[in-house]
Write a structure and sequence with these properties.
The structure is a single chain. By secondary structure, the protein is an all-alpha fold. It is built from 14 helices and no strands. Helix 6 runs parallel beside helix 8. The radius of gyration is 61 Å and the shape is elongated.
Length: 341
């Protein structure tokens, strides 16, 4: 295509290229708009084969089959590209001319076509047979080894779907169900709708959610409100249980604290009593020491008295003095014993 555009003046080439790019951009979402851009490009550069092919394809997708067929013929004449034969045959079918569609399937260039184009041509030929009421012939046309081929090619689910559809039309429902499932297994993107066809044959129905949106929304919100209310009730019960647990924990903690305090008080009282006993023992020891000191002083006084009396004292005086001294000692010893007790 770039080589063809170089044959045009630079400004014109840029304008044609812009319309072709726009046509390709809208091809999937808006085929009619893509077709209009291609027509503008054809008006600017009708002698370019790539431009005529763009017009043919967009016209075909926009269901302008008569114009598409004319443009496809121009493409074959201008470029020698015979890959458009399958789309040309499909245009003939769409225009109500299945016999001409079958004639195109016998074109001398069919053997030169790529595998995808040959498969598409088989599908179109089978469709033309069914248009003519020849369902058995359509099944025979599609019963080819490629049906069981292990490949991820885009044509495989289309071939299996067409075969299953023809089997169902012929009343061979069980076989059709098998091939609808096989088509669905090869159709990862779900473009053929084979899974839905298989479900219908099995008695299953697909619900269109758009039909009862209001009812579904109301039921959904009612259920959601009930769930929220249940959640709130459960939350309240959980809070109540938690508060009861906290109360029990607080009671247990208070009991434990009281027991600890009582034990500490008992220990403190025991320590105080022990301290008092020690103080009393110390006081008794001090009293004993004082008694011993008094006894020592009494002995010293007795010794001094003996020294002063000397030999002048008679036995009665000595005896009296000794008796007094012994009395003082006895008194001191009694005081000491009482203090120790």
């Amino acid at each position: 295509m770039k080589a063809e555009l170089r044959s045009l003046p630079r400004t014109l080439a840029d304008l044609v290229a812009q319309h072709l790019v726009a046509s390709g951009r809208f091809l999937d979402d808006d085929p009619e708009l893509a077709y209009q851009h291609a027509r503008v490009a054809r008006r600017l550069a009708s002698r370019l084969g790539g431009v005529r092919e763009a017009v043919a394809i967009t016209a075909y997708l926009a269901e302008h089959y008569d114009e598409a067929l004319t443009e496809f013929r121009a493409v074959r004449r201008m470029t020698g590209n015979h890959e458009v034969i399958a789309m040309m045959a499909d245009c003939e079918r769409a225009l109500g001319r299945p016999d001409k569609a079958l004639a195109l399937t016998k074109d001398k260039h069919v053997s030169e076509l790529s595998e995808p184009t040959q498969i598409e041509l088989l599908i179109v030929a089978a469709g033309a047979r069914r248009d003519m009421g020849q369902t058995a012939a359509a099944i025979q046309t599609l019963d080819v080894p490629e049906l069981s081929k292990r490949t991820r090619a885009e044509w495989l689910p289309r071939l299996r779907y067409a075969y299953a559809d023809a089997l169902e039309e012929a009343g061979r429902t069980d076989e059709a169900l098998v091939w609808f499932h096989r088509a669905a297994g090869a159709d990862g993107d779900g473009l053929t709708g084979a899974a839905e066809r298989a479900a219908r044959l099995e008695g299953l129905e697909f619900t269109d959610l758009d039909e009862d949106d209001t009812v579904l929304d109301d039921e959904y919100f009612e259920e959601e409100d009930e769930v929220e209310q249940d959640d709130e009730d459960l939350a309240d019960e959980a809070d109540l249980d938690e508060s009861e647990d906290d109360t029990e924990d607080d009671t247990e903690d208070d009991s434990d604290d009281d027991a600890v305090d009582e034990a500490e008080d008992a220990d403190n009282e025991s320590e105080d009593e022990a301290d008092e006993s020690e103080d009393e023992a110390d006081e008794a020891a001090d009293e004993a020491d004082e008694a011993e000191d008094e006894a020592d002083e009494a002995e010293d006084a007795a010794d001094e008295a003996e020294d002063e009396a000397g030999d002048d004292l008679d036995e009665d005086g000595v005896d009296e003095f000794d008796g007094a001294a012994e009395g003082v000692k006895d008194s001191a010893e009694e005081t000491s014993k009482s203090a120790e007790e």
